Structure formats: C-alpha cells, structure tokens
Amino acid sequence: MKKLHISTSLAALMLAGALGAAYGADYSPVTDARLKNPEPQNWLMTRGNYQGWSYSALDQINSTNVKSLTPVWNIATGVDSGHEAPPIVNNGVMFVATPYSQVMAMDAATGDFLWRYKRKLPEGFAALHNTSRGVALYGDKVYLPGLDAVLVALDAKTGKVAWEAKVEDWKTGYYMTMAPLVVKGKVLVGVAGGEFGVRGFVAAFDAETGKPAWKTYTVPAPGEPGSETWEKPDTWKTGGASTWMTGNYDADTNTVYWGTGNASPWFGDQRPGDNLYTSSTVALDGDTGKMKGHFQYHQNESWDWDEMNAPMLVDFQKDGKTTKGLLKPARNGYLYWLGRNEDGTINYLNSQAYVPQNVFKSVDPKTGRPDVDVAHKPSTGKAAKFCPGLWGGKDWPYEAYNPKTGMVYIPSNENHCNTLEGKVEKRVLGQWWTGVAVPDLNFSVDTKAGFYGELQAYDVNTGKRAWRDLYANSMNWGSVLTTAGGLLFAGGTNDRMFRAYDAMTGEELWHFRTNSGVMAPPSTYSVNGVQYVAVASGWGVDPAFQQSLMAELVGWNADVPQGGSVWVFAVNK
C-alpha cells in the first residue's frame, strides 16, 4: 500500500506538471488594451471592467434556460474563514484567492488543478480579517496583496514568486485584504487597519519590477489641502481613512476613483473637524497619484460607516441630458448620483435613502453635505443609537449595474442598529484602537421586523425602485453579478444558497445550496463556446460574527458551516 501511495502521488505530480505546461504554453498575456476593453469570454478583473459594473455581456445562459444550470465541477480551497474573492479567468485559466493569502490556479472548464501559492505569514502576525478579495492580472503575472502588507507578483504559468514589494509595516497595524487595480503598467493597492489607528493611502508599484511608483495618503499632513479639517494637532497621524477595497478607473481621463474608510478612533469629538478624506471617494491621477478631487459622504465620521467601495462609472439621464456620472449605494444608507468631470473633480447631483436611516435630518441639495442629528451621533461619554448600524445599509459586497435594464442592483440590510458610547484609549501599535471594545458594540434589531436582508433594484435614471426580494431569516452579505442574458446572480444568505433572478422583475428563477455561505462575488466566462458561472462559497468573518449576534437576538442558528469551495455551473443541455 505504501508503494501504491508513493506512485499515485508521483503520478498526480506528473499530471499537474503536464497540465501546467500545456496551459502555460497557451497563456495569453494581459495587456492595457485588454483591461480597457475586456473580452466577454474572460473575467480579467474583480468587477469585470474598469467601470466596476459587475456585468457580463455573455447571454448564452439566460432567463429561459437558467433553470437547467447544473454544477460541472467544484474544488475545495483547503481553508476556512470568509471567502470574498471572485474567480478571475483568462484564456481558460482560473485564479482564485482565498483567506490566509493563498492563490489557486485551475483549468476553468474542467477544474483540473494547476498550482497553488500559499504565503507564509510572519511569526506573531494577526489580522482583524484573514480574507482576500482577489488578485489582479497583467502581462504574465498574477498579483496578490499579502495579509502582511506585502505585494506579491506570481508567474501566472507556474505560481512561483517573481518579486515581492513591502507596502507597509504590519507591526504598526497595517494589513491588506483588497484586490489590486492595474493601471497603465502600475499595480495599485490600498491598505486596511482603520481600527488600529493607521493613516490610509493608495500606493502604486511597477508591474514588471515591483519598484514603488507613487504613494498618496488619504489623510493630509499639515499644509496639504484638507489638513485644516483636522482641527486638533496630530490627530491626522492616526486618522484612519483606510483604503481596503479596490478602486475603479476612467481610462479616458486617466482618473482612479478609490473609496476610503472610517476615521480613527471612531468618535468624532476626539478629532474635531470634517476629517478629510475619511468616508470619501477620492479621485487620483493614474500616472502620479496626485489628488484631483473628492467627495465626502459624511463629515466627522462617528458611526464606523466606511465608504470604502469606489462608485461605479455610470452615465445616466439628468434634466434630459446624458451625464457622465458616478453611482454609489453608500454604507450610510443613501444612494448617490455624482458627476465625474474631465479634470477629475467630483460634484454632487442627488441622493436618496435606500434603507431607513435616522442620522441625517436632511442633505444639502447643492453640496450633498448631510445635516446630522446629534441625538444619533455617539461621542465620548455619550451613548447614541443609530440606524442602520455600523455594518450599514450595505457593507463591502459589490452592487452591479446592467446597461440593458438600466438598473443598479444593491445587496442591502435594514432593521438593525447600534448603540455606541466612546471612551478615550491609549494607542498601542498594532492593537484595536477605536474608543469602544467589541463586547460594547450593542447591536440590536427590530425583532418584529418581517425581514433583515434584501436585494433591491433601482432605475438609475429615475431613482425609482423597480423591485426587491426580502430575506426574513437572513442578512445579505453577497456581492451580485448581472448579465446580458437578463440575469442577476447572488448569494449572501445564511441558508448557503446561490440564486439566479430575472434582472427585470426580481423573480427567483434558480437556486443551488452550496457547502457554505456565499459571500464572494460571482463571475462568468466562456471556454470553447460554453458559458460558465463561478463562485466561491465560504462563510466567515463579519457575517459569521453578525450571525452569532442574531442567534441571541432572534434565535437564528449560530452555526453556518465554514470551509471554502469553488463552484462552477453550466447549462445542462
């Protein structure tokens, strides 16, 4: 039996090597032109295109035949925790990032395993989230932000390390979970760590060599534009505004749009002023990182409402004219229509609540600045209840835009709140520093509510809600994908389902129960004329924590099975 085991293992290695050699010979390098106009049969970046639509022009799978969607292969990732990365596909090769800084490569049509990279993290390292939200492709390389704030370039054909670049010192509280954005030969990354009192930034590295190209802080130093909004000396040094989600890009104006997180510590009276550029969208020059413009969603951030997701680049109708715009369902519970200008500046156009919210009394119709009800603004020594709670109307999961339906699709949550009271804490490098302890987050829900999670569709031109699907027994933690086939794919619920909806009506057309909860963004691609839909299933991190709280509040089962697996589906003809 021992000889059989050895020979079988050797045969497996030989087979993997043969598969790797075969696919490596056919691997198609990713170019600037391909990123600007990605082919429908591939899924080359996190949200499918630079505009951030999470949309595919493929229509072989459609509202008529989706009921025949069947699993064609799946593969275990070998790790637990929250799987939050989409399958990235180039020329029939799939790359999936998983928690704990791992990348797997597979044949996208058959699931044949090609290679695995798993980063060895430093001794003593710990992150608030062990997840990864994806990789980026460029040339013949795959780029992974390691949890320990190191950018790793891998050979796409072998998985071997081509180069590594230190982004920041993990010992000071920095770590990375986002997927990179590649712009004109530069790999752009952001950092997490807002709960540890870091100073956020976006940094760019040469895609071929790993050499630093530029670095732009999202909290200005004294004398820089916006520094006057930090009225108390030295608070800017630990001001937060982390950049833990991937940006979007306007190739026509060479403008990168990136979202920023909460201010640090959480309670605004400890750092008076508007605190730019926290809870904002910043517009950066793709070549130099120079700040072109910004929009702040709420000033003196005091609710842990990160606005880390970059808005989608969507052109919509306003006053009878087509407007080059930015569209963003914000964590604060409002849907924003913004103008994107040729010079990179951003102007406010309109906003409306997409979930009930009790913090904003009104929003200035010219500037978008909210009039905050201080009764619902927590501070040091003063408790306040605010709704939606700190997880927001939606957290990080991506919305999607379908140009054929003219709708934006929002995975959202409501009927939940937090009551927070701040205290002054001494900062210790690399340790939790928010002004409130985790046991004191005081999460609450309306126990008489008929639902908590939901999926909503809005017409981007009129702002009218077209439909919504309500989840009575689950929050919604799933990104969505929409297609030219008239479909919307979504997971996000604690019942482990992956669903397909009619994008126009919201009718559920198909579902499949996976091994765990689906938090990751789905993707779709085609190989040899066959369209596939792929998603990683793997529950954990914030949804698991929130599920345990809901178990206490409304009696849900606290245990949603964990363990990652990649599922790939096609129509059974």
Name the descriptors.
single chain; 573 residues; mainly beta; 5-stranded mixed β-sheet; 4-stranded antiparallel β-sheet; 3 helices; 8% helix; 36% strand; globular; disordered N terminus
Kindly describe this structure.
The structure is a single chain. This protein is mainly beta. The chain contains 3 helices and 38 strands. The longest helix has 25 residues, at 2-26. 54% of the residues are buried.
Condensed summary:
The chain is mostly beta strands and 573 residues long. It has three helices and 38 strands.
- Could you state the oligomeric state of the chains shown? single chain
Distance between the termini: 42 Å
Strand order of the largest sheet: 1-32-33-34-35
Question: What is the typical, i.e. mean, pLDDT?
Answer: 95
- Helical residue percent? under 10%
Number of strands: 38
Gyration radius from CA atoms, angstroms: 22 Å
What's the arrangement of secondary structure elements?
Layout: H1 2-26, H2 32-36, E1 55-56, E2 69-76, E3 88-90, E4 93-98, E5 102-107, E6 113-118, E7 136-138, E8 141-145, E9 150-155, E10 161-166, E11 181-183, E12 186-190, E13 201-206, E14 212-217, E15 248-250, E16 255-259, E17 280-285, E18 291-296, E19 312-318, E20 321-329, E21 334-340, E22 346-353, E23 360-363, E24 370-372, E25 384-386, E26 400-402, E27 407-413, E28 416-420, E29 443-445, E30 453-459, E31 465-471, E32 480-483, E33 487-490, E34 497-502, E35 508-513, E36 523-527, E37 530-537, H3 541-554, E38 565-571
Parallel strand pairs: 1-32
Antiparallel strand pairs: 2-38, 3-4, 4-5, 5-6, 7-8, 8-9, 9-10, 11-12, 12-13, 13-14, 15-16, 16-17, 17-18, 19-20, 20-21, 21-22, 23-24, 25-28, 26-27, 27-30, 28-29, 30-31, 32-33, 33-34, 34-35, 36-37, 37-38
